[in-house]
Amino acid sequence: MKEENFNQLLRNPDQEPSDTLFKSILDESLYEIMKKIEQNFITTGIILEWRYYKDGKAWLGKATYRKRTMVWISIWANFIKASFYFTEKTRPGVLDLSFNEKIKSAFSSTRPTGKLIPLILDIKDEETYQDFKTLLNFKKNGK
Hints:
- This is DUF3788 family protein.
- InterPro entries: DUF3788.
- Pfam families: DUF3788.
- It comes from Salinimicrobium flavum.
- This protein is of the alpha+beta class.
- It contains five helices and five strands; from the N terminus they run ααββββααβα.
- The protein has helices at about 20-25, 30-45, 90-95, 100-110, 125-140; strands at about 45-55, 60-65, 70-75, 80-85, 115-125.
- The protein is globular, with a radius of gyration of 15 Å.
- The termini are far apart.
- The mean pLDDT is about 95.
């Protein structure tokens, strides 16, 4: 069984994220997933803005649609982490969606942080990318 690598990438404040950088640091399949994510953002009118955060000492991508934050993106050695935040009001709608049951189960028992409930998705293959699209579509449509 392949050992998971939980090393967060994009830690150099002087090395701004770009397609060239992604191609050099990600394996081919993960690079293709990142391209799909970026293309999905473009076709749905979502803006992805990368910023270096000193507190976390890493670059994070903030995806917004009409000033609303849709999802936060971070790049790791073996996956792309997507961090969604929902409210108690939207939790039932999220749980009605069709996506990975383990993630859904974990989300159903997650306690809010303030008023928001985090749903963290590690995107590493086509199946988890489809889960990402499902959650992003739900979030974008004002739910």
